[in-house]
Amino acid sequence: MDRTPRTINSTAEPSDLSEDHDREQDEEETERREDKEELERLRREEVEKLRMGMEELRMGMEELRREMKEVKLWMVMEELKKIKEEKLRKELEEKLKSEKERLRKELEEKLKRVMREGQGRELEQKLRGEMEKLRMEGGSMCNIS
Predict the structure, then answer these.
(1) Is the model's pLDDT at 109 over the cut of 60?
(2) CA of 105: how far to CAs of 63, 109, 130, 134, 135, in Å?
(3) Rounded to 5°, angle at Cα 137 from 132 and 142
(4) What is the pLDDT averaged over residues 105-110?
(5) Where in the sequence does UniProt note compositional bias of the Polar residues kind (predicted)?
(6) Is residue 8 included in any domain, yes or no?
(7) Average pLDDT for residues 107-119, to the nearest whole number?
(8) Residue 86 belongs to what domain range?
(9) pLDDT for res 145
């Protein structure tokens, strides 16, 4: 649209001048309306972009929350696993200790019986060797890590 000022023809009829003026006003009004429509279209586009960005952000936050819950669950499961392993280790150590004590008493009883029955020095030394061997093995077995 040409915005250069027009020179008014002094010989023109007053009705011609009025028509020119009306046409200029119509053109300006059309231009303002088109500008307003363009601004509204741009505003709607920006609003839509923002809405989509907010939706992506919301979805990202939800995904992050899910991942955090999964990590927390994994951490709890790992801690539970450690607790169970520690409990099992202690139970096994206790059983081993108990079994060692039972075998020690059993060997002592056999040794006493052999000595009571007088079955000789050789058997006594063999049983003492077994007890010492058991004591050595049992000691190393209790140091389970």
Answers:
(1) yes
(2) 63, 6, 12, 11, 12
(3) 125
(4) 89
(5) 1-13
(6) no
(7) 78
(8) 15-141
(9) 42
3-state secondary structure the chain: CCCCCCCCCCCCCHHHHHHHHHHHHHHHHHHHHHHHHHHHHHHHHHHHHHHHHHHHHHHHHHHHHHHHHHHHHHHHHHHHHHHHHHHHHHHHHHHHHHHHHHHHHHHHHHHHHHHHHCCCHHHHHHHHHHHHHHHHHHHHHCCCC
- The residue type of 6 is R
This model's pTM is above 0.90: no
Q: How far apart are CA 145 and CA 139, in angstroms?
A: 13
CA neighbor of 3 nearest in space, from 26, 33, 28, 29: 28
Cα 42 from Cα 33, distance rounded (Å): 14
Q: Which long-range contacts (CB under 8 A, 24 or more apart) does 128-137 make?
A: 131/104, 131/107, 134/100, 134/103, 134/104, 134/107, 135/104
Identify whether 5 is part of a domain.
no
Is 70 part of any domain? yes
2 in a structural domain: no
Q: Which two tokens stand for residue 16?
A: 């011609």
Q: How many domains does the chain have?
A: 1
